[in-house]
Specification:
The complex is a heterodimer of chains A (about 500) and B (about 110).
Chain A: H1 6-14, H2 21-39, H3 47-65, E1 74-75, E2 80-81, H4 84-111, H5 116-134, H6 138-156, H7 163-194, H8 209-218, H9 223-240, H10 249-255, H11 258-281, H12 288-310, H13 316-337, H14 343-368, H15 385-388, H16 390-404, H17 410-424, H18 428-453, H19 471-489
Antiparallel strand pairs in A: 1-2
Helix pairs in contact in A: 2-3, 2-5, 3-4, 3-5, 4-5, 4-11, 4-14, 5-6, 5-11, 6-7, 6-11, 7-9, 7-10, 9-11, 10-11, 10-13, 11-13, 11-14, 12-13, 12-18, 13-14, 13-17, 13-18, 14-16, 14-17, 14-19, 16-18, 16-19, 17-19
Chain B: H1 5-25, H2 29-53, H3 62-93
Helix pairs in contact in B: 1-2, 2-3
Classes of the chains: A mainly alpha (about 500), B mainly alpha (about 110).
Chain lengths: ~500, ~110
């Protein structure tokens, strides 16, 4: 009896490891760092950060260069689906990981915290997010999501000598765990209903996106499955901090170490949006009759809440949190528009890149204007910043101006393109709310800029808290700022991405 | 005696609710962590029950059972991280009650 080698051939063809080389490279690099620490403990603080940063920079360049090269669309038995969007997000997360590692390296050195594990976990999270945004199967989605979330619990509580950081980590653990459990139960409900052999359109694999979509097309009103879909989407809404699920933002942004706050604000939010887009335009598209009005309502309250709660905050980390909620609201308009206008997806991607550039600019300034206790960063600490350190001051002003959407900075173009998409989708009410939100947001962004330009005469200047950026840090911040300005003037700079 | 699917789903639903309200209402950090685990395990029960009762001759529905192993692994990782954070927090603050943690506020 001759063995049947055809089975192995099928397996070999289904698993295309080369298609996920960036994720594998990140994982290998992350493990390599831990190994280097064991092998060369003496060079722990010199060799390893360099390996981590150069490795990531090389990966970023290679990813950006091969952005148009898409591996065969689906591999691993529909677990993952590769697309240009996926490649763009890979570049996005690579850039985020690099920036967080760089700011984190400077910050941790100052706080005398171990750096190797930080780099390790940031890389694991980057790889996890890359898999997350490309997954088209609930098992893959859940495992990638938990890889990201559990590592983020650790990063949030990374500063383990500080009660604030630990408390933030604990709160994130409880609230993140709750949202993952809800998401998981939603998946189970969909699995159960879509796999029911008595219903029309029974799925062969009721956890795969494509089969679930077929099921929903025939049973758009199966209430168990619809509740499941709602639970899944609410779990994702926790990640993007849309309003009823935003409770965690203030405390955790404040308590987490500043580079980790940046990571949460940019990369975690972006991954949530791409997953949300993939879900509502993929398997849940037949449920648009629920999700379109639901997400529109979420967008309205998210924009209004984020902007109103931002006014009057004194802690700049909380301001970034509230402004992040407001930005999530604008992006939700994009998601609603994406139901009818194709351009909305690229508008969202462009907005995410612009948001990343501006946020990392602001966060890198925040990492330099911090007190001993990282969780207390008050507006008054910024008094006279523009005069005492013009470089940090101007990076901050450009970053904040871009977040506020002042022309000609990149943030303005991002908002403009997003709003044009919303206009084409005839979402006039949402547009009106968004414009009201933008106007309110000017107040706290400019309050911050005002704090940096002038000084409150009643408060003593606190510039013992100002750390002077190193030369390479200046280059890094300068690049972010220049990109923010030039992308606003000429969007073609990002054409290597789009 | 043959139990039907609804019996399992009811148990899963009850356990999920116990976990959900436990996280919201209890203040002890360790109990909250246990409630999170209850919610994940409720999903496991429902998954196994669904994949047993939805199975047909043509489709054995094994992916539900496979998913359970992933969930168990993830839950273990979550507990490990959670306990580490809670222990370190206890060393710093000498309490495991969530409402006594109020360093972070507006």
């Amino acid at each position: 009896m001759s063995p049947d080698y055809g089975v192995f051939k099928t397996f070999a063809e289904a698993n295309q490891w080369l298609a996920i080389w960036p994720e594998l490279a990140y994982g290998t690099l992350a493990l390599l760092l831990l190994m280097l620490e064991v092998l060369f403990p003496r060079y722990k603080n010199t060799l390893i950060p360099r390996v981590a940063l150069t490795g990531q920079a090389i990966l970023l360049v290679v990813l950006a260069a091969t952005i148009r090269r898409v591996a065969s669309p689906d591999a691993f038995g529909e677990l993952l689906q590769f697309s240009v969007t996926g490649n763009i997000m890979r570049v996005f997360f690579a850039a985020c990981g690099l920036a967080v590692c760089y700011i984190g390296g400077v910050y941790l050195k100052r706080e005398r915290l171990p750096r190797v594990e930080f780099f390790h976990m940031v890389m694991v999270i980057s790889a996890g997010m890359m898999l997350l945004v490309q997954s088209t199967h609930f098992i893959m989605l859940f495992v990638a999501l938990e890889t990201v979330t559990i590592s983020l619990y650790l990063l949030v509580s990374y500063c383990r000598t500080s009660v604030a950081s630990l408390e933030a980590g604990f709160k994130y653990l409880i609230q993140g765990g709750l949202s993952s459990a809800i998401l998981l139960f939603g998946m189970v409900l969909i699995y159960g209903s879509a796999g029911n052999p008595l219903l029309p359109g029974t799925a062969g694999d009721p956890l795969a996106y494509s089969d679930i979509r077929v099921f929903f097309e025939l049973n758009a009103h199966n209430y168990v499955a619809v509740i499941g879909a709602l639970m899944v989407v609410s779990g994702v809404c926790f990640k993007i901090a849309a309003v009823p699920f935003h409770v965690w933002v203030g405390d955790i942004y404040q308590g987490a170490p500043t580079p980790v706050t940046a990571f949460l604000a940019v990369a975690s939010k972006a991954s949530g949006f791409i997953v949300l887009l993939g879900l509502v335009l993929g398997p849940f598209l037949p449920l648009a009759y629920i999700f379109k009005p639901l997400l529109a309502a979420l967008a309205v309250i998210t924009i209004l809440f984020g902007n109103i709660a931002g006014v009057g905050q004194q802690n700049v980390k909380r301001i970034m949190g509230m402004s992040g909620i407001a930005h999530a609201g604008y992006l939700l308009i994009g998601v609603v528009a994406a139901f009818s206008v194709e351009m909305a997806v690229s508008a969202i991607l462009f907005y995410l890149f612009v948001y990343m550039l501006a946020s990392f600019g602001v966060f890198s300034v925040m990492a330099h204007v911090s007190r001993e206790d990282d969780s207390i960063m008050l507006l008054e600490d910024y008094g006279d910043l523009l005069k005492d350190n013009p470089f940090l001051g101007s990076v901050l002003v450009v970053g904040l101006g871009s977040l506020a959407g002042i022309p000609p900075l990149a943030g303005f173009m991002g908002k403009l393109i997003l709003f044009i998409a919303a206009f084409q989708a005839q979402l006039y009410v949402l547009l009106g709310v968004a414009i009201v939100g933008v106007v309110i947001s000017i107040s706290y962004y400019f309050g911050w800029i005002k704090a940096a330009v002038f000084r409150n005469p009643e408060v003593e200047p606190v510039h013992s808290t100002l750390y002077i950026p190193s030369r390479t840090m200046r280059v890094f911040m300068g690049v972010l700022t220049l990109l923010t300005i030039s992308v606003g003037l000429y969007q073609g700079i990002l054409s290597f991405v789009f | 005696m043959n139990m039907d699917l609804n019996a399992y789903l009811t148990v899963a639903g009850i356990i999920f609710s116990i976990g959900f309200f436990g996280v919201l209402l209890r203040r002890n950090a360790l109990v909250m962590l246990m409630c999170l685990e209850l919610m994940l395990n409720a999903s496991n029960i429902a998954l196994v029950a669904y994949s047993r009762y939805n199975a047909t001759e043509q489709n054995q529905m094994m992916d539900g059972n496979t998913f359970v192993f992933f969930i168990i692994t993830v839950a273990a990782a979550e507990v490990a991280v959670g306990l580490a954070i809670i222990v370190q927090l206890f060393r710093k603050t000498r309490t495991v009650m969530a409402d006594e943690l109020n360093t972070l506020r507006d």
